[in-house]
Amino acid sequence: MTKEEFMLIATQEADSNLTTNEGGPFGAVIVKDGKIVGRGHNRVLIKHDPTCHAEVEAIRDACQNLGTHDLTGCELYTSCYPCPMCLSATIWANIKKVYYGNTAKDADKIGFRDDFIYNYIEGKCQDISVLDLEQFGRDITIKSFDNFAQKTDKTIY
User: pLDDT tens across 22-48, in order?
Assistant: First the structure.
């Protein structure tokens, strides 16, 4: 299959929500060795879960289909530039190549506002109505980290 065909399938995933209303108009596919190994479309509304973005759904599907948490060697085709959460999930999955169709500005024009999250991450937003982030209880929680550091059978991912 060609890149255009993979992007068309990602777009078809997005288009499915125009009739089902499971979530926004976002779709994605994960490709490995020229074959689709994962598919997803936004399912935030149907699952009542704000993490069910198309890219995350496709990553979950690919991981289950391949029996791994490591998608090294895979490519992501997505109908829109990934939001910060989806970018993070893509990086955690070790996907090194992403093809995207629409831009974040295109998403903003139809009501999806990723920009305030980018602003928060970049330190341009200190408004606690967006998020009040406070460290607390490190003396309690660090013990788990210390114990993990001592394990000889740990897996770092």
Answer: 999 999 999 999 999 999 999 999 999
